[in-house]
Recover the amino acids of this structure.
C-alpha cells in the first residue's frame, strides 16, 4: 500500500462521513482519521527515500555519461595525435575525430535529457502525492475546527481545550 492508497482511504472516509444538519461539516471517527494519517506519515519516508534513490540513480547515469564522454574524447585525442603528418590521412583523421566528439556530445546530451525526464516524472508524481496528502490533512484539520466551532455554538460553556491549565 502506498501514500496514494492511504490518501484515497482518507478521502473516502471523509466523503462517507455523516453530515451535520444544515452545515458543511461532518462527523468522522477521530481514531480512524488519526490512524490513516499515521499510516501516511509512516509511508512518506519510504517515498522520500525512493525519490532520493531516483536522484542518486540519475546522478550515476550522468556520471557514467561523463566518463564515457571523457573516454571517447581521450580516444579521439590519441587518434588525432598519431596522425601528425599533413596528408589526406591526417585530414580524414581530423574529420573522424570531430565526428567522434560530436557523437559523444550528442550521446551524452541524449542520456542527460532522458535521465532528467525520468527523474522529473518521478518527482512530479511524488509532488502530486505530497500535495494530495497536504490537502487531505488541511481538510481534516478544517473539519475538526468546524466541529469545535459547532460545539461552542451548541454549548457556550464548551471548553475546546480540555487539558487543565497549570
Amino acid at each position: 500500500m502506498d501514500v496514494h492508497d492511504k490518501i484515497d482511504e482518507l478521502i473516502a472516509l471523509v466523503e462517507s462521513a455523516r453530515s451535520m444538519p444544515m452545515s458543511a461539516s461532518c462527523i468522522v471517527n477521530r481514531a480512524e482519521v488519526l490512524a490513516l494519517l499515521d499510516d501516511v506519515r509512516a509511508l512518506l519516508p519510504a517515498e522520500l527515500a525512493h525519490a532520493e534513490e531516483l536522484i542518486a540513480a540519475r546522478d550515476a547515469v550522468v556520471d557514467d555519461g561523463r566518463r564515457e564522454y571523457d573516454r571517447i574524447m581521450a580516444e579521439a585525442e590519441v587518434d588525432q595525435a598519431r596522425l601528425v603528418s599533413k596528408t589526406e590521412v591526417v585530414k580524414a583523421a581530423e574529420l573522424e575525430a570531430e565526428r567522434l566528439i560530436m557523437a559523444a556530445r550528442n550521446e551524452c546530451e541524449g542520456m542527460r535529457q532522458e535521465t532528467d525526464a525520468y527523474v522529473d516524472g518521478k518527482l512530479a508524481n511524488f509532488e502530486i502525492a505530497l500535495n494530495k496528502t497536504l490537502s487531505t490533512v488541511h481538510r481534516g484539520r478544517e473539519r475538526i475546527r468546524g466541529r469545535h466551532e459547532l460545539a461552542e455554538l451548541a454549548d457556550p460553556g464548551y471548553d475546546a481545550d480540555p487539558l487543565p491549565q497549570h
User: Anything to note?
Assistant: The chain is about 80% helix and 0% strand. The beta strands are 18-19, 26-27. Helices lie at 3-15, 30-82, 88-154. The first strand starts at residue 18 and ends at 19.
